[in-house]
Amino acid sequence: MRSDLVDLAIFSGRTYPSFAESICAHLGMTLGKADIFEFANENIFVQYEENIRSRDVFLVQPFFPPVSTSILEMLIMIDAARRASAGRITAVIPYYAYGRSDKKDQPRVPISARLLANLIETAGADRVLTMNLHAGQIQGFFNVPLDELNALYPVSAHFASKNMDGYTVVATDVGGEKRARDMAIRLDLPLAIVEKRRVGNTGSVQALNVIGEVNGRNALLIDDEIDTAGTMVEAIDILREKGAREIVVAGYHPILSGPAIDRLRGADVHEIVVTDTVPLSSEKLMPNMHIIPTAPLFGEAIQRIHTGQSVGALFQ
Questions:
Q1: What number is the average pLDDT over the span 205-215?
Q2: Same domain, yes or no, for 139 and 197?
């Protein structure tokens, strides 16, 4: 192991160990050993099988289905590391669930993203490392340092290597305008925005209009995550109605819940570009899907955090 990483330890929960292994491979180190399982009564047990006293510990776990189990397992891992006298504990959360519950937009509802931040801090995390939170204000929910990596850079690099003449970058809704604008700037392409309306709490959406010119052009449709793909498919339909030609879909976090795969297959898009922040089962892989690895980016960030260097410099 490199001399500057001797005191570094990386462990994974059960949700996505291959991602943590990829981070370790990038850093030239071995994933730490931990015994994690559930008793018959579904109580989670965590025990580190190596000494972590005074070490810089990074715990890797996306909050991916089963979401509640993933979250609770991370909290117990943090608590176990704190009680084992870890020097510093960083929760590495490639995908932060409950991101859409970032404000009180209806009567008598919680702000679950804030509650989750409080739980992570109370468990004993000293800092958090994540990628593309659904809303920027979630950073402010934490009272410990938070580093938010941006998939814009590896994803835009993928498209920059292609011929994107004739494309327009399209935001799936007004809330994603900045995300799409950043992509448009990096690719030197025009921007359009789909105007949509969400119907209740069912996940249903209705696309109403497209702000910007897409007639006769190709479209790069971008969102931070693809959950049931309802928003994507509605946007695709209205783009075609407005005269768009070839459509490429990009989503940073491919959650792909429920009917998502069937919807995307039926949408007949040219390419689907996602990252590897959550595990994708073989049933969710599609011939036109391109998966961009982000573990090296997390590895670089972990190295910089451990050695006291700037994480922001990765994106300058």
A1: 85
A2: no
The catalytic site residues sit at 196
Burial environment of residue 72 by CB neighbours within 10 A (0 to 12, 13 to 18, 19 or more): middle
* Coarse DSSP helix, strand, coil percentages of the chain, rounded to the nearest 5 percent: 35, 25, 40
The length of the chain, given as a count of residues: 316
Distance (Å) of CA 59 to CA 44, 90, 113, 123, 130: 16, 6, 19, 13, 12
- Give the structural domain span for 204: 152-292
- Residue 2 has a pLDDT of 72
Residue 218 tokens, joined: 């190709």
Question: What pLDDT digit, counting tens, does each position of 77-104 carry?
Answer: 999 999 999 999 999 999 999 999 999 9
| Range of weakest confidence among 38-52, 162-176, 193-207 | 193-207
The C-alpha R_g of the chain, in whole angstroms, comes to 20
Residues 226 and 273 reside in one and the same domain: yes
pLDDT for 107-117, tens place per residue? 999 999 999 99
Domains held by the chain: number? 2
Can you give the CATH number for the domain in which 303 is found?
3.40.50.2020
